[in-house]
Amino acid sequence: MHTIKILSVFVLLTSTAHVLDAQGNGLLKEKDLEYLKKLTKDVLDSSRVYPKQIISKDFGPNNTGGILIRPGGRDCYPSFWIRDYAMSLETGFITASEQKHMLLLTASTQCNQTWVTKNGSMVPFGAIADHIRIDDQKPIYFPGTYDYNEQGTKEYGMTPPYDDQFFFIHMVYYYVISTGDKNIFMREINGIKLIDRLEIAFKVPPSHEDNQIIYTTDDYRGVDFGFRDAITITGDLCFSSILKFRAAKELSLLFTKANHKDKAIFYRTIAEKIKKALPDLFLDNRGMLLASTGKSRQADVWATALAVYYNIFNEDAQTKASRFLSEAYKKGLLSYNGNIRHVLTSDDYDSTTSWEKTSVTKNNYQNGAYWGTPTGWVCFAIAKTNFSLAQKLAGEYIMDLQKNDFRNGNRFGAPYECFYPPAYKQNPLYLATVSCPYAVFKYYRSHALPTLDLAH
User: Fold this and answer.
1) Which of 146, 165, 153 is closest to 70 using CA atoms?
2) Which segments in the chain show pLDDT lower than 50?
3) How far is CA 247 from CA 39, 386, 388, 429, in A?
4) C-beta neighbour count of 37 within 10 angstroms
5) Is there a domain that residue 455 lies in?
6) Whole-angstrom distance, CA of residue 185 vs CA of residue 161
7) How many other CB atoms are there within 10 angstroms of residue 435's CB atom?
8) How far is CA 394 from the centre of its chain?
9) Phi/psi class of residue 96: alpha, beta or left (left: φ > 0; alpha: ψ in -120 to 50)?
10) Residue among 72, 65, 75 nearest 44 (CA)
11) Cα end-to-end span (Å), the chain
């Protein structure tokens, strides 16, 4: 029932462009989509932490009073991460009661007073946690630690990552459209209504007043997106601005449901400004979006594909980006076994690093390893001009999962967070590696793509 409601809303919001090939096939064969569906369900189930359950000897039990969904299974990630959870919502596998619990937990830990950590970083009023401890519910606003008192070192930014605020908004948006529960808008958490908390969160990341693009500085840097929190990216920021675009659209729709017409128009206008500004600021002559205008000003595969997915580009720009990604894939610069790099191998900053500035060695983790999380977005982008090539990439992704499927035995761990051949593998049973592509492949076949097209 919830899936039907969600798809009907997306049909009203999105482009109804042709999304199947001439034979009516999706990007994945039906049997492969069914395999991915079952695998995603199993990984998500292994990622659930039930009340009083202990998942690590170094932490206490889940004392939050409800089920949490962490970024992966086994003994990885003994906390609740906001972004990873929010990025898995479109699977449709998370119940309304689970959503509500995690949504209210996140709201309850939203920063209610600006403060400075002992390491000199600042947590601004309205900031959303990077992750929340399961034993004592303490919010950790910065990556790199589970210690509340030691959080906020310069390595991970002088202010919390800019993306979690927008993922919080997405949590509320998805809950409302999947349940129809508009009463939650007026729910007070620590004396502040949820609807007000959304607006407070939206305003946290620093943005230019004229075009609403998010930016950061060298001296007071914030992480643009948690999936590259080990990378130094400065100046105007592309990926977090894309997330802000989506959040603005979602707030506009939420305020429409709450009968606040003026605010609905206000946030729709912000989305329009971002949509207009993004190509002018970040698009290179090949059709790729640059990650930023400062440090690590490099062509960003993830941002480019996501912008196509959300229909931010005009038709000519979409076609150009699609064709360039197609060529990069054919040349072996983009992917390995269906998993995607942040930066094309041809666009590495130099022989020693993929990104310009990072604490990670080359071809490890966020600095050149291959990730499954963006595979769906990239397949969707390539399919704009070369459907069969997109199907081939999607098929390689499935084959790699099947070969290394964690259900084959303890020595197997797919879906991994990321990997690099021949031997480097990071974190088994990683949820976003399957949940994000599954959402794309599922919507592709359903003719209801969440592109958030402003024309609809």
Assistant:
1) 146
2) 1-19, 22, 448-456
3) 29, 30, 32, 28
4) 18
5) no
6) 25
7) 30
8) 19
9) alpha
10) 72
11) 24
Q: Supply the CATH number for residue 76's domain.
A: 1.50.10.10
Map residue 341 onto helix, strand or coil. coil
In a domain, 451, yes or no: no
State how many domains the chain has.
1
Please report whether residue 318 resides in a domain: yes
pLDDT digits 0-9 by tens, 365-381: 999 999 999 999 999 99
Strand ranges in 98-244 using DSSP code E only, listed in sequence order: 115-116, 122-123, 131-133, 139-140, 188-189, 192-193, 215-216, 235-236
Residue 336's contacts (CB-CB under 8 Å, 6 or more residues apart) are 370, 420, 421
CA distance linking residue 309 with residue 170, whole number of Å:
16
Strand partners, 280: none
The pLDDT tens digits for 313-345 are 999 999 999 999 999 999 999 999 999 999 999
**CA–centroid distance for 125 within its chain:** 23
Calpha distance 417→429 (Å, rounded): 8
Domain coverage including residue 214: 2-446
Q: Encode pLDDT of 378-424 as tens digits.
A: 999 999 999 999 999 999 999 999 999 999 999 999 999 999 999 99
Q: State both tokens at 180.
A: 């129809």
Query: Which tokens sit at 252?
Result: 């506009």
Instruction: Tell me the residue ranges of DSSP E strands in 28-128.
Output: 48-49, 68-69, 79-81, 115-116, 122-123
* Nearest C-alpha neighbor of 387 from the set 28, 15, 11: 28
Query: Is residue 240 in a domain?
Result: yes
